[in-house]
Amino acid sequence: MWERIGALVRKEFIQMKRDRRTLAMMLLLPVIWLIAFGYAVNFDVNTIHCTIVDHAQNEESQKVREQMTQEEGLEIVEAEDEQTAYRRLEQGTTDVAIIFPKNFKLLAKSEDGQMRFRVDGSRLFTAQSAIRELNGILGDLQQENMQSLKETVQTAAGQSPEVAAQLQIPSHPDQAKIPPQVWKRMEESIRAKVEEAMGTATEKQLQQMGDLLPNPDYMIPRVDVLYNPDLKSVNYMIPGLVGLVLIFITTLMTALGVVREKERGTLEQLMVSPLSSFELILGKLLPYMMIAVIDFLVVLGVGIWVFEVPFTGDLVSFALAAFFFLAGSLGMGLLVSTVSQNQQQAMQLAVLTLFPQIILSGFIFPLEAMPWGIRWLSYLMPLTYFLPISRDVFLKGMSAWDHPLSFALLALFGILFLLIATIRFRKSLT
């Protein structure tokens, strides 16, 4: 029995050796996947671009700004007015606008002393990191000021030992753990304890002490998230999925369709027909382009009406960008078909071509989090340029013309891939 099994095993190895492309992919694909995942799979955002508008220009705002400047990962620039900061947000050159009001206080008692953040929600992971990082900086500084406030309140209360024993001022709450309403109840509890301990204190003393306590509702910065107010992951993912679905279906469909013709022998029959090579290529690609356009409309409709992702931009320019993107995908599929002997090889090569685009294009993992050694590969992939156009058209109300470089590169990729694939296909026909 073992001799028969051994003979069959040897036969399989001989077949693998003959099919060197499949063998190479079997050996190299795990290594490529491991390297891609190891370096590119990183949700951490290394750089957050911040624009500061400081209307206060006081000691406390200066203290916060200095702390932000020292923080690794924050790139700080200043703007003279809020309109400039908001314009940078719209253009995508900054991730968050930080506004210090004229009466800014770390331990704010009213709305006119409350800091404001305006964040670009179309960059989901960057927005989440920015809010978390900036709240952490502000919270640490507020905690430092709490001890000083406690001493001030005790002085206002007449430096009563009984009050000092009863007075417990908590540090700034972590938004992720203590909701504002809980923090407010804590503040009310403090006031109650103080009033109880100050039983014989004058009304003026109580009022003076109460006025010194900060209002927790205004200690926490007011955060305005633009373009994706609830920071929904679906609003971030669906515009990217439009591109991913299109490139996957188009590349795979074209590659398998052409190779299937080779396997059946019908491609040779077309070669001896009166059709020129150009007519043959065009006739093969046009049906796939038409199906791809239908796929584009279906995916777009499902994203808007089923997942309720807002589409606020220019449809015409977006459709034109998608056309060039689809042309490049068709070219990739045709190119894969020219180097594949059968459908199995075509499937493997198509997956090998598409997988890096899923990982390295910024579809899931932010490009800013990737090391430069891997990131440069991202700029060789069409999906990298289609994604920012798609997300900004969906969420920001922009058009493809607002991304002239990405649009031009999409057109270049489309023409280049189709040209190379056509030349290769003509050679394979002859």
UniProtKB/TrEMBL annotation:
Answer yes or no on keyword NADP. no
A GO cellular component annotation in the UniProt record: plasma membrane
Ion transport is among the record's keywords: no
Q: Where are the transmembrane segments?
A: 21-41, 236-259, 280-306, 318-337, 349-367, 405-425
Q: Subcellular location, in the record's words? A: Cell membrane
What is the topology of this protein in the membrane according to its UniProt annotation?
Answer: Multi-pass membrane protein
User: Which UniProt keywords are listed?
Assistant: Cell membrane, Membrane, Transmembrane, Transmembrane helix, Transport
Q: Name one GO molecular function term.
A: ABC-type transporter activity
- Top-level taxon of the source organism: Bacteria
Q: Cite the ABC transmembrane type-2 domain residue spans from the record.
A: 203-428
Family, according to the entry, reads as follows:
Belongs to the ABC-2 integral membrane protein family.
| PANTHER family with a match to the protein in the record | MEMBRANE COMPONENT OF ABC TRANSPORTER YHHJ-RELATED (PTHR30294), MULTIDRUG ABC TRANSPORTER PERMEASE YBHS-RELATED (PTHR30294:SF29)
Q: What is this protein called?
A: ABC transporter permease
Q: Which organism is it from?
A: Paenactinomyces guangxiensis
